[in-house]
Batch of 3 targets.
Target 1
Amino acid sequence: MSTAAESLKRLQTRQAERQARLDAAAQLEKVADGRDLDEKLAQAGIGATNKSNAQGVLARLQRQQGE
């Protein structure tokens, strides 16, 4: 029984390591193609995805006043 438990633990460890590698690769890909920066800019209200319009500008200014 301990052999099965040890095998399960090894499998879980390998799966966790593989998932960590996949996550790291995805993050590196985002950084390499600029998506990471685009996402950060969008969160800050800057960038092509956040086209300025009167309502958007007003909402951003109201959020800033609330801080």
Target 2
Amino acid sequence: MVLFAGHLSTNRRPLEKSSAPLCETLFDPRSCEHAASMGERQVPGAVRCGTIQEQEQEWERGSKGLEKGLKVSASLMEPPNDLNITAAALEKAADWSRDLLGRGKEVEDNALKACMEAAEAPCADWSCQLQDEILNLAYDRCGEVTGEYAKTFYLGTKLMTPEKQRAIWAIYVWCRRTDELVDGPNASRVTPKALERWDERLQSVFAGEPYDVLDAALSHTLSEFPISIQPFRDMVDGMRMDLVKSRYKNFDELYEYCYRVAGTVALMTVPVMGIDENFEGDKEKVYHAALSLGLANQLTNILRDVGEDVTRGRIYLPVDDLKRYGIQEEEVVKGLVDPATGKVDDRWKEFMKFQIARARDIFKESEKGINALHVDARWPVWSALVVYREILDAIEANDYDNFTKRAYVPKWRKTALLPYAYLQGLKGIDRSL
């Protein structure tokens, strides 16, 4: 289920334990631009000798092991000159985006099919050729990154079994790294070609050929849980969309984007969460419910972050909905709040009421699938849902001002919601699935 989709676009800050930004803490020096040309492919389960072994040696020399070994440069985030963005590169990416738009439901259905096939197939039959100590350190580092960037979500994972915790952390870190490509400190220099190389690297991870140790943690996860590559590739495509598309003419277009950057997380994580052994319904409906939670989380992000996104030149709101409420794009850019009085434009209030109602409906749709998950996943997922949904209440409490105010759920309120989430998880499986 989508536990952390909402956390990827939040808390954009360096790790507190290091002065280096996330991109410098997570990426191998040769990670993306050169990863696709590092010699012949190796047998499944093998690791690339020039990277993982070097990091192992560095860890052995360092007093803190993994933390020392991961302080490497971020060529993935800082492409060499030949990868600088050009008009031709952007046009190629724009052509790709135009070709793909309008296929959102088709893409989602294809991914669902791939995930259902993976669920019935045996897990990958390789194991990463890493010492247990090194693999444990890699998973621990994934946990550290998760804890720094998504504290509430991280606490939720502590309710799971150790095996599920580690798997979720590995998936989170891959998603975090991918998100940093277009939203991180060096996003302006990331190109379509860089994303192509990142996709190639992903395929190597799924082939049992991880490039660095954090990739190895994900590769090891794939040998433990039946996870399809398709949602991962769809997320990379979502990052491609972000490079060239900053407006969405209708909700269908926005839905496609939300699927790619958040719904995909559901498809990645449901196999880890597991479906209750007593569930006798259609498992695909459980995945659909998870997709709804990812979509609702992302829509909530969008509604919360309107002002922030405008400063980055992006408006993730359906243009036709804006027009329906008599709002021009230029007004959104300026902000529909009177700077002298702080009064929010009535048109914006009505527009926001409509958008919030839609998000709540989608949250409601997602609820029916949670109790079909394995029992140890229900409380953290319910917690994620009820806490994230409260952001919508916070937007209302701010009188719909998401230009000058940031809606958030205070820590005391999050804590107060946990018993409710726990009780929801004790209810039976929704028989309508």
Target 3
Amino acid sequence: MNVFANEGQPDIYRGFERILVIQRRTESALEVAEQGRAKAVEHLLASRLGPEGKCHGSVEPPSLYKIKQIAKAQNSTLVYYSLIYDYQQFYEMSRLQIGLNTLYAYATELFIWVISPAGKVSFRQVDLQSLWSEDNTSLAGLVRSVRELINVGYSDRERLLCRQQLQFLYQILLEPIADLLPQDPQKRVTIIPQDFLFLVPFAALIDSNGQYPIEKHTLLTAPSIQALEVTHRQRKPIVERELALQTVGGNSSLDCSPPLESPQECLVVGNPTMPSICLEFGEPPVQLLQIPGTQLEAEAIAQVLQTQAITGDRATKSAILEKMRSADIIHLATHAFLDDIEGLQSAIALAPSPNNHGLLNINDILHLNLQAELVVLSGCDTGRGRIWGDGVVELSQAFITAGVPSLLMSLWLPPSSSNLDFMKEFYHQFRQTCDKAQSLRTAMLTTMEQYPNPREWAAFTLIGEA
């Protein structure tokens, strides 16, 4: 996420990062990287909320000492990525009207920091220029290709090519730090991507032994280290509230509160009457198509959560907004657009009514004060627009700012049959373990056994708290 609104503008923080890395002051560079992301979030909130957005739920960017404390509090190994771009070459190519018209094609270096729960900070650096010279591609192009192949890879040739490129991505993103990651698959690894790396299905990358990272690690994602401090702070009163409920019920001896067994208010929405939206900037609005299987998904999840699903015409924006304020778990089985097209906002599709268009946008979410422990978005579609990644950051940061410590969202629309099995397994595990990250891992591994194609099991990422 660039500090500035325009893609082509240099990011001064990343420039400073690079200077510090050249000087071998890599820990100071990590602090600067976090300052840059804090500035980017501040810019986002201010653009959505106006001047008051600058202080809405914000905290100071963490120092190196604080970063180590956050890793300890999360009990997770933090993997922090930062992309460095060749702005000069981008400007020159744009001036000559040749090459690619996106800055992301000109990523030259990848900085990776690994912060262990014990506070050890390690740094690795990956040269990306060889992708241009030797493979005639870019890291952004590789990410786009993988995502396209995952979504269309039905033929043997497409599946083989997708597998090769997932291996290639592993070599770039995870192999340089593989020796720094925990050996125990139950130990958490929190990945903090940047820009288009938010669209990488890290769980489905493939190592030299043919293993997926999710087979070796329990994976989470976060938009920044600062966001982890916020989500941890938000999670604490939720735990205290659940323990108080258990104490009243005479069950205070439990180490954790099984979320689905406590008296909680759960909101499940699925298959709403679809609103109309401009799928391309400047085009007239068209009604969205229903997502196959969302009615069945909502009804099945509502049964697990012991509530009634809200579907069809009843799932209006005004009705859902009102129920979201008091819900402890929110499950939305509907379109969630994570668009990077200029002039369009990320939005969640709900039923229209005479008073509104039915689109729950970032601004609506930022103005909420939610008490939910978990929000699940099972119909996210990041396949439109440019390879940018800001849509993922926007939506996750909006829910975090609104008070939600954990967000489970899809990076593409998984097939309805495998998605229903995946969701049922996730909630079954969540009932048993109280651990969202472990529940996600088990759901992925279980779904993988029946549906081995990553398209079927690797669509989801957990953002925030475990």
